[in-house]
Amino acid sequence: MADNEIAIDQLQESPPRISELKRFVRVFFNRWLVAFGMIIILLFLLTAAFAPWIAPYDPYETNYEQILQAPNSHHLLGTDTLGRDVLSRIIFGARTTLMVGVIALGIAAIIGMFIGLIAGYFGGLTYSVIMRIIDAMMAFPMILLALVIAALLGGGLRNVMIALGISLIPGYVRLMCGQVLAVKASDYILAEKSIGASDLRIMLKHVFPNCIPPLIVMVTLMMGSTILAEAGLSYLGIGIEAPAAAWGGMISDGYTRLLTNPILSVAPGVAIMLVVFAFNMVGDGLRDALDPRLRGTI
Asked: For the whole model, what pTM was predicted?
């Protein structure tokens, strides 16, 4: 009788179980900053997708009769030194920023995950060689490494994406390798090996899927860093070449006129700030929502 009462008390004290989807949504949107970040990202994506229909003017059309106009009813954010509409260039710059961020992160994530998976699973000499190379790459700050690679490859959209992708690889390799080292020591991995499962099957079916959640969070958080790095390269004149609409390039073009016409640099700067802030907040929310310690509870 006493044992039954103890069992009932334990059941009553256990946290209520809910579905994974409900738990994820509740934890993810637990803070209003995460919801605000999601709204900013959705607006950013919609702006990039529908830029030709949203932009009031052609972002590359010059009009020397309307140079450096202040914000007015025709040009809400004014015009630049070539008479181009600033708002239209910011809208089209969202496309450039999204393209650079997605492709650069795609390069880094795919290559980094593959190398980290190989290094962590096989260990030994393979691990030592790969990780020493990664340590050498990480001796340089990400933006400096991207700057060197971009300078060697030359400017342009394609070379900037390659440079940023290569510079982001070390972070993914180290994270993936650490996750693999933890997962491959699990009992179910040892059981798979004992029944003769191949290394390829174990890596792809058991190890890799269990390493994905932290990598998803890292991709989201690194999106903001990639956008900042692209803006930095464009600001330094090594990134996306004129006349392409790029937020970093717009800041570089307008910084000499901060006192007379600050909107030229402030407007794209605010756009970068909002998007980077949004991705950081969403990445933080994903980290909390994917935390296994909260799984199955409200």
From this structure: 0.79
pLDDT digits (tens, 9 = 90+) for 251-286: 888 877 877 888 888 888 899 889 888 888 888 787
Give the pLDDT mean for 160-189: 86
Calculate what percentage of the chain has a pLDDT beyond 70: 88
Map out the domains of the chain with their CATH numbers: 93-298 (1.10.3720.10)
Q: Which residue has the tokens 């070449």?
A: 241
Q: Average pLDDT of 215-244?
A: 79
Return the amino acid letter for 168.
L
pLDDT of 159 reads 85
> Which burial class, exposed, middle or buried, applies to 120 when counting CB atoms under 10 A from its CB (0-12, 13-18, 19+)?
buried
**Diameter of the chain measured on Cα atoms:** 93
Are 97 and 88 in contact by the 8 Å Cβ rule? The answer is no
Predicted pLDDT at 46:
92
Task: Please state, in angstroms and rounded to a whole number, the distance separating the CA atoms of residues 105 and 161.
Answer: 9
Q: How far is residue 13 CA from its own chain's centroid?
A: 40
Residue 224 near residue 279, CB atoms below 8 Å: yes
Q: Please provide the DSSP assignment of the chain as one string.
A: -HHHHHHHHHHHHSPPP--HHHHHHHHHTSSHHHHHHHHHHHHHHHHHHTHHHH-SS-TT---GGGTTPPS-SSSTT-B-TTS-BHHHHHHHHHHHHHHHHHHHHHHHHHHHHHHHHHHHHH-HHHHHHHHHHHHHHHTS-HHHHHHHHHHHH-SSHHHHHHHHHHHHHHHHHHHHHHHHHHHTTSHHHHHHHHTT--HHHHIIIIIHHHTHHHHHHHHHHHHHHHHHHHHHHHHTTSSSPTTS--HHHHHHHHGGGTTT-THHHHHHHHHHHHHHHHHHHHHHHHHHHT-GGGTT--
